[in-house]
TrEMBL record:
Keywords: ATP-binding, Cell inner membrane, Cell membrane, Ion transport, Membrane, Nucleotide-binding, Translocase, Transport, Zinc, Zinc transport. It comes from the Bacteria. This is ABC-type Mn/Zn transport system, ATPase component. Residues 5-220 form the ABC transporter domain. It comes from Gynuella sunshinyii YC6258. GO terms for biological process: response to zinc ion; zinc ion transport. One of its GO terms (molecular function) is ATP hydrolysis activity. The keyword Cell cycle does not apply.
């Protein structure tokens, strides 16, 4: 196993509020780690610290020398007044060879959108384009902050499957922030459950049994194997 990032004892506070307290995280090559936790738990803050965008108040971070990180942010503001094709978007801020652009768009299944304007993309298409952008420099570590935002349920499952496939094919490490507990538990190697401190971490099965996890996500405590239930009936007459 190659360790990509090893962080220990991370702390971060603002306005007398302890946002992160004594956090230990190790990210390995080839491993898919998902960070879960309630709103305001400090997930994005921790991601920014691991990325090196934000310095922690205390603690140590060791990164593999020459580590390349691909980051898919939670939100990206794109100016609506400037028409921008997907290909051009992937060449920002750094010009990329057309072949590389085609490769990443193929990998994420949206090569047919290369000449489409980013402003015209659906939520699901945009997330795949953002994922393509995070992949463009062949990262050793992919950091995805809520990658399935604005994607419908079927699209979510497909996107999580794609993320797993990318990990398998590229052998990179993946750190992902997600709120979709059912899917996360089925499709991740390791879960970090954060609520300012690390409540619990480990394999999904173990985390789902942990008392702190159950306290935070009690209504999801049967997580483990995903099963889909219809809670309503379709009436053919309503559709036609
Ligand atoms: N620079 C800052 N100054 C003051 N408060 C901050 C700062 N950065 C983050 N916070 C606060 O820290 C808490 C954690 O924020 P963060 O965005 O990391 O949470 P999160 O777990 O990613 O939340 P969500 O699930 O809602 O996206 C929030 O209450 C936020 O308001």
């Amino acid at each position: 196993m190659t360790t990509l990032i090893k962080a220990s004892g991370l702390g971060f506070s603002r306005q007398e509020k302890q946002i992160l307290d004594n956090i230990h995280v190790t990210l390995e090559k080839g491993s898919l780690v998902t960070l879960i936790g309630p709103n305001g738990a400090g997930k994005s803050t921790l991601v920014k610290i691991l990325l090196g965008i934000l310095p922690p108040d205390c603690g140590q971070i060791e990164r593999l020398s020459g580590l390349k990180i691909g980051y898919m942010p939670q939100k990206l503001h794109i100016d609506n007044t400037m028409p921008l094709t997907v290909s051009r978007f992937l060449s920002l801020p750094q010009k990329q060879p057309a072949l590389r652009i085609e490769q990443v768009l193929n990998m994420t299944g949206v090569v047919h959108l290369a000449n489409q304007y980013v402003q015209k993309l659906s939520g699901g298409e945009m997330q795949r384009v953002l994922l393509s952008r995070a992949l463009i420099n062949e990262p050793d570590l992919l950091v995805l902050d809520e990658p399935v935002q604005g994607v419908d349920f079927t699209g979510e499952v497909a996107l999580y499957e794609l993320i797993q496939r990318i990990r398998d094919e590229l052998g990179c490490g993946i750190l992902m922030v997600s709120h979709d507990l059912h899917i996360v538990m089925a499709k991740t190697d390791q879960v970090l459950c954060l609520n300012h401190h690390l409540c619990c971490s480990g394999e999904p099965e173990t985390v789902s049994q942990h008392p702190e996890f159950r306290q935070l996500f009690g209504h999801h405590s049967s997580i483990g194997v995903y099963t889909h239930h219809h809670d309503h009936h379709h009436h053919l007459s309503e559709q036609g």
